[in-house]
Design goal:
CATH topology: Rossmann fold
CATH class: Alpha Beta
Distance between the termini: 30 Å
Strand order of the largest sheet: 6-7-8-3-9-10
Order of helices and strands: EEEHEEHEHHHEHEHEEH
Helix content: 25-40%
CATH architecture: 3-Layer(aba) Sandwich
Shape: globular
Radius of gyration: 18 Å
Number of strands: 10
Strand content: 25-35%
CATH superfamily: P-loop containing nucleotide triphosphate hydrolases
Length: about 250
Amino acid sequence: MKNIIETKQLCKTFSNGGQQTHVLKNIDLEIREGDFTIIMGASGAGKSTLLYALSGMDRPTFGEVNFCDTGITKLSSDELALFRRKYCGFVFQQTYLIDSMSVLDNVLAAGLLINKNKKEVTAKAKEILESVDIKEELWNKFPTQISGGEAQRVGIARALVNHPSMVFADEPTGALNSQTGRDVLNALTKFNEQGQSIVMVTHDITSARRGNRILYVKDGEIAGECDLGAYVSGDSERHQKLRDFLGKMGW
């Protein structure tokens, strides 16, 4: 499989009152097409900062990010915004759906940023909402009228409507109970099995075992990596392998 993202000496430094905090330290990393890559680590380790740097949501202090053969660290702010719109999908802990727009219109709004053919985008939006188990009777409801789990699945549909090269997810189940969180993970797993590349930050081992590749971030560096292979529900050996790896990392 080819690499979608490659980084070289990726660094991120924050300054506060004259003091500098080195959040990312010279990270060289490759993210492969088709992988479900999980980023784990303790609070403050730099995992979300790494995700934002990989996706172009934040600029590194130093280093390079090559994404789909484009050096995104060299793009202007406007060019970077257009790049993200075309190549990236985002799912966050909070859905950030627009409360004044219906479920369907939230997905349409994202699709029409890339494709101005409303008929095509509408058909795609409806297809992808159905694929994340958001039924037609919910399409005209507003985000405040649906459950948290349903809203997060609408967020996944919005992230996928433009056929992104990569979906970035930052703690997508962090605000959900176990059952609705499982529904969201099932949706992400389904799309990954269909070939969608995903990078997800999580602190939850149940979420992490959905990935085939685990990266552990510690003190701004990749401290270790674990290959779990393709996800199989109920695989106790997979769960134990992940636990053993995290134990070695000091998790």
